[in-house]
From TrEMBL, chain A:
This is Cytochrome aa3 subunit 2. It comes from Cytobacillus gottheilii. Keywords: Copper, Membrane, Metal-binding, Transmembrane, Transmembrane helix. It catalyses: 4 Fe(II)-[cytochrome c] + O2 + 8 H(+)(in) = 4 Fe(III)-[cytochrome c] + 2 H2O + 4 H(+)(out). PANTHER family: CYTOCHROME C OXIDASE SUBUNIT II, NITROUS-OXIDE REDUCTASE.
Length: 159, 552
């Protein structure tokens, strides 16, 4: 099959760029550890409130781990528990969240913290809060009539 | 391959079948467009829906009617017109099957629409479990899919008949392309049919208590990404084959066009995980694998872009264009059949760039479920594809109704295209910008408890309302043009433009018609990308979810 010389050049350039791009993504994912949240842990969605750590939502200091705090969120239509939380500036935090009913989103606006919360699954994300201020948490997956009213708040404060 | 049949009109009986589907598509445009207008007005914060109508009810209407109904009906009609024109008139049996398909799709649409209007199905067009709609909503969508299979069957039967009658000859290019698209559609819709028939219908009827959410979403997105290529490939049919004839040029290469369609068939399906990157239940390595497969569609996309611009440039130079870009001025900018789809092609440049970002393993996290995504598919589907469909309408409808596109209507059509471009620049641009700041998609107006971040989004939402209002005007104009072309334009002969090969093009190799190879590779790629993670989702599933039908 005949291919025009310019088309060959165009495709070689395009495919080459693509390979570089995919290599960047791959190195970022597997060498630097920038993976999308894929916790794979499960939970009975009917019994969220009785199981650790979701029996005690909120911020908890932990020792001997790669992160300083664990921040547990329970989502349900149409709110998050806790409704607001203070985090010390510079803390490395593992956010652990799940939902009691339908699918919800967990987005901290203006950051890269963005996860799907699906019934039966636990979602996790580790992050460092290195900017003080108030951050809006909102639901970004449609969950019903009150979806756009479903919020929480993180305040990053100087400790 | 240009035979005497190309001089003929599409058979009148086939024309009626095609027009029936195009009527439904334009009714859908009116209803869905109105819903879209209401949404942008609500989100501006300066308007409230009357009479207890819910925002999410309207949003469900918009998505179902434009994303599923307009597209499926128009595409089926257009592809059947192409096949009837290039492979010959349908037999009575083929046409009857296609008509049964049309009626199943129509009945299904009405069932789903009634349930949405009764507020029994405000679950959006993605109907993610465990939100649970009325079972008639799921049944209606099933009928739409099954009906589309019958419409596809007519195309496959015609293709098989043509091949038997012309052994050893490559099939007509438009018929070949239509066939690729229906094959992809059938393989893809098996996923959504499986989740609806095996999971959602029995669950909504109360026959089973719970549903496996992870499996349901995975089956949905197994279908959801090829769905967007099902929308796009008919536009590519017009770009590859019809636009060259309209401008007076030649098709750049028959073989490369076929090859790019085959590549779309292979790489459109095993890629659904890039819509599920932020889901907790899928292993990160499998997500990455599907990300890589997703990006392979870059190759046929680059081939398409090259072919189109090669056609344009070759044509311009044949008219004596000088300099690097002189050919650009030679294109028939006054012909809406070319100019309106051309706006669509241009929009595909930022749309494609945005798509690369969305599918990127990491960058996805910045934009996932923000209104950036809505902005993205209003460039792909709602500009590139839809403006191409409008460009097709300008000649296909008069061709089928025995009328002509007059100078006056052509002018209106140009205005329509420009209005669309202006409206979409505002709306989609503001959506992209607000999305980067974190504004979520699929959300009614909210001040988010007075959060200062949310206040920053409101000016962009006002810009979306301005853009959306301009788009609604463009829709009204388009409906006027459609009604004119269908019922009032002067009688005459409107050409069905089909491009010819350039003289030095070689005939397409027959290997492209070997469906055992291509369907075989398609299935293998799907099995490779999905088997292990899918087994994982079932084996390691959490307890199922009961249905929630009282949240809206």
């Amino acid at each position: 099959m005949h291919m025009h010389k310019f088309e060959k050049v165009w495709l070689i350039f395009g495919v080459g760029t693509l390979l570089v791009f995919l290599t960047v993504l791959g190195v970022s994912a597997f060498y630097l550890g920038n993976q999308p949240p894929s916790c794979l842990a499960t939970i009975d969605p009917e019994k969220v409130e009785t199981q650790a750590p979701f029996n005690e939502p909120g911020l908890k200091k932990v020792e001997g781990k790669a992160w300083d705090y664990e921040l547990v969120f329970v989502a349900q239509a149409f709110n998050y528990n806790p409704g607001d939380v203070e985090i010390p500036f510079g803390a490395t935090v593992k956010i652990i969240a799940t939902t009691k009913d339908v699918i919800h989103g967990f987005e901290v606006a203006g950051t890269n913290i963005n996860m799907m919360l699906e019934p039966g699954y636990i979602s996790e994300h580790i992050t460092t809060f290195d900017k003080t201020g108030e951050y809006l948490i909102l639901c970004n997956e449609y969950c019903g009539a009150g979806h756009h009213l479903m919020t929480s708040k993180i305040e990053v404060v100087e400790s | 391959m240009i035979n005497s049949a190309d001089k003929l009109k599409v058979d009148r009986r086939d024309g009626k079948l095609v027009m029936a589907q195009i009527y439904v598509a334009f009714i859908a445009l009116l209803i869905g467009g109105l819903a879209g207008l209401l949404q942008v007005l609500v989100r501006s914060g300066r308007f409230e829906l009357p009479a207890g109508i819910g925002y999410y009810q309207i949003l469900t209407v918009h998505g179902v009617v434009l994303g599923l109904v307009l597209t499926t009906f128009f595409i089926m009609g257009f592809m059947q017109a192409c096949v009837s024109k290039t492979a010959g008139t349908f037999t009575t049996k083929q046409r009857t099957i296609a008509w049964i398909g049309f009626w199943l799709m129509t009945i299904g649409t009405v069932m789903a629409a009634v349930m949405i209007l009764l507020n029994e199905a405000s679950v959006l067009y993605t109907f993610y479990a465990p939100l649970q709609a009325h079972f008639l909503f799921y049944l209606g969508l099933t009928l739409v899919v099954v009906g589309s299979w019958l419409g596809s069957a007519a195309i496959i039967m015609k293709y098989a008949e043509w091949r038997r009658a012309n052994p050893g000859t490559p099939s007509p290019l438009l018929t070949f392309m239509a066939l690729v698209n229906v094959l992809m559609w059938i393989v893809a819709t098996l996923g959504v049919a499986a989740t609806v028939l095996i999971q959602l219908l029995p669950w909504s009827l109360g026959l089973v208590e719970t549903v496996n959410v992870g499996v349901s979403r995975t089956l949905f997105w197994y279908f959801g990404h090829p769905l967007v290529y099902f929308w796009l490939l008919p536009a590519y049919m017009a770009w590859y084959v019809i636009i060259p004839k309209i401008i007076g040029g030649k098709i750049f290469s028959d073989s490369l066009a076929r090859m790019s369609f085959i590549l779309f068939l292979l790489f459109s399906i095993p890629v659904g995980f890039h819509h599920q990157l932020l889901e907790p239940g899928i292993d990160a390595a499998w997500k990455f694998l599907q990300v890589v497969l997703t990006f392979l569609v870059v190759i046929p996309s680059l081939m398409t872009a090259f072919s189109l611009f090669a056609t344009f440039e070759t044509f311009g130079r044949s008219k004596g264009a000088k300099g690097l870009f002189g050919w650009f001025k030679m294109l028939p900018w006054g012909d809406a059949r070319f100019a309106v789809p051309f706006i669509g092609m241009l929009s595909f440049i930022p749309a494609g760039a945005g798509g690369l970002i969305n599918a990127s393993n990491q960058m996805n996290q910045v934009v996932h479920n923000t209104i950036w995504v809505t902005g993205h598919f209003h460039l792909t589907l709602a500009t590139a594809v839809v403006l191409t469909f409008f460009g097709i309408t300008f000649w296909l409808v008069p061709h089928l109704t025995g009328r002509v596109l007059t100078k006056a209507i052509n002018k209106l059509a140009l205005i329509q295209g420009v209005l669309w471009a202006i409206g979409m620049t505002f709306m989609s641009g503001a959506m992209h910008a607000a999305g980067l700041l974190g504004a979520p998609r699929r959300s009614a107006f909210s001040e988010y408890g007075g959060a200062p971040q949310a206040a920053e989004w409101i000016p962009y939402q006002v810009a979306q309302a301005v853009g959306g209002s301009i788009l609604f005007l463009a829709i009204i104009l388009m409906l006027y043009i459609f009604v004119n072309l269908a019922f009032f334009a002067p009688k005459g002969e409107e050409e069905f433009p089909i491009g010819e090969m350039s003289t030095h093009a070689e005939p397409a190799p027959m290997v492209f018609e070997n469906w055992k190879i291509w369907m075989g590779i398609t299935v293998l790629l799907i099995l490779f990308a999905y088997t292990i993670p899918f087994i994982d989702l079932i084996q390691n599933a959490p307890p199922g979810s009961k249905g929630y039908n009282n949240l809206w």
